[in-house]
Amino acid sequence: MKLKAGTEIRARALLFDMDGTLVDSTAAVERAWKRVAAKWSADFEKLRRHMHGRRAIDIMRDILPPEASDQLKAEVAAIDIVELTETDGIVAVAGAAGLLAALPPGAWALVTSARPALAAARMRAADLRLPATMITSATVTRGKPHPECFLRAAERLDVAPKDALVLEDAPAGIAAGRAAGCQVVALATTIESERLDDVDWIPDLSVLRLETCDADGWMTFRIES
Predict the structure, then answer these.
(1) Residue of 149, 170, 153 whose CA lies nearest to 48
(2) Is pLDDT at 49 greater than 90 in this prediction?
(3) How far is it, in rounded angstroms, from Cα 53 to Cα 20?
(4) Which of 87, 110, 116, 165 has its CA 20 to 30 A from that of 150?
(5) Considering 19, 24, 58, 169, which one is annotated as catalytic?
(6) Are the CB atoms for 25 and 90 separated by under 8 Å?
(7) What is the pLDDT of residues 113-124, one digit of tens each?
(8) Where are the domains of the chain?
(9) Is the previous residue joined to 105 through a cis bond, with omega within 30 degrees of 0?
(10) How confident is the model at residue 155 (pLDDT cuts 50, 70, 90)?
C-alpha cells in the first residue's frame, strides 16, 4: 500500500539497500549482465525479473548450465571487473542525498548485495557519502532474501531489528527485511507499484523527511506529498 502524505514512521536506525534505493544503477547493471546472459545463451528478460538485489554469485548460478558449474568462480570474478567500470549513467535516486545529509552519522547503514569495492564505486559515481557501517556480499554467508544482512546491520548499529527501518526496492531485499523482523518500506523505483500491494511503499526517497531526532536516538520521519 502506498503510504499517504502525513504518515509518521519512528525508527532508531535506517538500513538502506543501495542499487535502486540510494543509487539508480539499473542501466549499468543490466548492460553488464545482458552480455553475460548472451554469452551463456540465458534468457535475459527472465533473468532480469529476479536478479535485482541479489549477490553476483547467486545470479551467476542461475545463468550457468550444470555442465559449466566449475566456471562459477571465474565468471563471478570477470563480472566483478566489468561492473567496477560500468558507471556511465549512475546517479542518486531522487531524495537520497538530502536524506543522508540529514541523518546522524551513526544512525544508518548500507546493506547491499554488492562487493565492497563495487558499493564504494557506485556510491562515488552517484556522489553519495559512505556510512561507517556497511554490510556487503563479503560480510555475509547467505544473500538476500535471507535476513542475515539486516540482522548484522542492526547488531552493528546496536539497535533491535524491530526498531530499524529497512528501505528496499527489490523483492529479495523486502523479503530479507521482513524475515529479519524490521520495519520495511519499499521504493517503487525498479519494480511496478502494482507488485507492491502487500508492502508499504513510497515512490522514492524525496517524500521521506526526517522531522525530529530525540536524545535517546529515536528518529521521526514524515511522508510528504
Answers:
(1) 170
(2) no
(3) 9
(4) 87
(5) 19
(6) yes
(7) 999 999 999 999
(8) 8-25+90-223, 26-85
(9) no
(10) very high
Specify whether the CB–CB gap between 174 and 199 falls below 8 A. Answer: yes
156-171 exposure pattern, b = at least 16 Cβ within 10 A, e = fewer: bbebebebbbbbbbbb
> How are strands ordered across the β-sheet holding 219-223?
8-11, 219-223, 208-213
The CATH homologous superfamily to which domain 8-25+90-223 belongs is HAD superfamily/HAD-like (3.40.50.1000)
**Mean pLDDT across the stretch 158-181?**
96
Say whether 17 is catalytic.
yes
Count of other CB atoms within 10 angstroms of residue 10: 14
Name the phi and psi angles at 15, rounded to 5: -115, 105
Give the cell for residue 75.
565468471
SS3 state of residue 101: helix
CB 14 within 8 A of CB 106: no
Q: What is the DSSP string of 115-175?
A: -HHHHHHHHHHTT-PPPSEEE-TTT-SS-TTSTHHHHHHHHHTT--GGGEEEEE-SHHHHH
Q: Does 111 score more than 80 pLDDT?
A: yes
Catalytically annotated residue among 17, 24, 58, 169:
17
Q: What is the DSSP letter of 93?
A: P
Does residue 19 have an active-site annotation? yes
Rg (CA), the chain: 17
